[in-house]
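Researcher: Structure prediction, please.
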Amino acid sequence: MLSIRLTRTGKKGQPNYRIVVTDERASVYSPYIENLGNYDPKTKKITLNKEKTMEWMVKGAKPSNTVAKLLEQEGLKHKSIVIKKFRAISKKELEKQKAAEEIEKAKEQAEKEAAKEAFEAQVEAEKKENESVDPLLAAADEAIAEEKKEEAKEETKAEVAEDAKEEAKTEEKEETA
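Model: Predicted structure follows.
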């Protein structure tokens, strides 16, 4: 992506800057695509080719924050000229932010603990319900009950058979007598 930024020139203690179009990933001292003008910070003198600058911004080049301020001073207007405002935060504001963050963290922690306790209570309630009607226990009880019924049927069949035999014997005795 292309950017319009400053490249330092001049002697030590006598800065002078070129306003250039370059790839934003390239080094500050690397070759640039085109020189758009100059800026002297001591005299605050700006020489700028406005037509070329506008052409590059139409093509998609975005100015750095410092260059955006210089372009605004020169009276250029374009949607890509955005000036970011940086402001130092005082110690009091930092302390207020930290206190607010701590309060928020405490609230989140309390909510998490409340949710955890509610979940544990729900799990305990489900365990109590399931203890009385545990599916495995219920199935085992049903199987035991079925086996007892079958045993009872077999016993009754055996008793009926024995009674029938005894009746047959008593009938035989009566007939023989």
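Model: The helical segments are 50-59, 65-74, 91-132, 135-176.
Researcher: Thanks, that helps.
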